[in-house]
Amino acid sequence: MIEGRINLYSDTQSRPTLAMKQAMLDAAVGDEQKALDPTTNQLCEYVADLLGKEAAVFLPSGTMCNEIAIMVHCRPGDEIYGHVDSHILKFEGGGPAAFAGANIFPLQGERGIYSAETLEEAIRSPNRYAPTSRLVVVEQTANFGGGTIWSPDEIKAVTDVARKHGLTTHMDGARLMNAVVASGVSAKVYGQYFDSAWIDLSKGLGCPIGGVLAGSQAFIDEAWKWKQRMGGALRQSGMLAAAGLYAFEHHLEKLAQDHANAQRLGELMGQHPNVKMMTDTIETNIVLVEIGATGLSAFAVRDRLEEQGINIGAFSPTVMRAITHLDVDSEMVEEAGSSFVNTINEMMEGKN
Ligand SMILES: *Cc1c(COP(=O)(O)O)cnc(C)c1O
The whole model's pTM is what? Predict the structure, then answer.
C-alpha cells in the first residue's frame, strides 16, 4: 500500500497529534515490569475502572490483548465460539491455535453479530470425542460486520447462554469506545457481561501503540505471566500510556465526528447504483460496501483510488471497506466519496 492524502484504509492509520506527543514527552516514567511506571499504572487503573474490572494490563497491541486472554482462558483442545468474520479467527495468524492450542467454532450471523440461539446450538455436549467448550468471544464493534454495535440485550443473551454452560466470556473491544459514543451506553455496562475485555488505543483513539486488557485480579496476574514470557513486559512505557490517557480525555468526542463522517461517506459511495451498502445503517466509523454488481474487482478499484491518493481497503474480490478517523475531515470525505463513484464509472466505461 502506498499511503495517500486521504487514508481511509483503517483507523489504525491516524497519527498522534502534536498535543498527544507533548503529553507523551511530559509523562512521568519508571520500570513498568516492576509496577514502577506511574503513568502506565494510572492508565491501567483508568481502564479497569472504565470497564468495571478489578485490574488491567497495558499491552503493545490489541492482537496481544486477544491472544493473551485466550491463553489464560483456554487449554489445548479447547474450543472458542466466535463470529465467522471475527478478528481472532481471520486476522491473528491463527494465534488461538498456535499459542493456546484452541479451535474456533465459527458462528454465523448478520452484521457480525450471532444470536443466543446460534450459540446454544453450537455448544457441544461434553463428551470424550468433542473439543472442550471453553470461551465465548464478542467483538464490539463488529469490524467485518460493518462497525456494528452489539446491544446490551444481545450481549446479555449470548453471555447468559455461555454462563449456563459454564463457559468464560471475552470481549474484543478494539472499537468499544465507538460503540459507547454512538449508543450512549457506558463501557461499564458493556463490560459487566465479560470475564475479560480490552480497548485498543491505536484505532479511533489515535494513539501510536497499545491496548489495555482488563479482568479480575487473578486473570490479570496470569495475563502478566504471558506478557513477561512473550517479551511484552516493558520498561518506561509511560510515554505510550500517556498517549492513552490523553486520548481518553481529548479524543472520545472526536469519535462522534468520525461517525458523522462515515455516515456521509456511505451516502456518497452508495450513490452509485451498482454499489450496495452491506449494512442498513452506518452505526459507527466503518463503511462496508459490496461492488459485485459493477463487474469490477475490488482490488482493481482499490489500486485505481490509490493512484489518486485515496486509500480504501479491498477485503475480497467484491467487498471494500472505508474507515473514518481523526485524520480524516469532512472535506476529505467529500473528495473520497465522489472519487470513488467517478472511478467506478470510469472503470465500468473502460470495460465496455
Ligand atoms: C484491530 C483489531 C484488533 C487487533 O488490534 P491491533 O492493535 O491492530 O493488534 C483486534 N480485534 C479487532 C476487532 C480489531 O479491529
Answer: 0.97
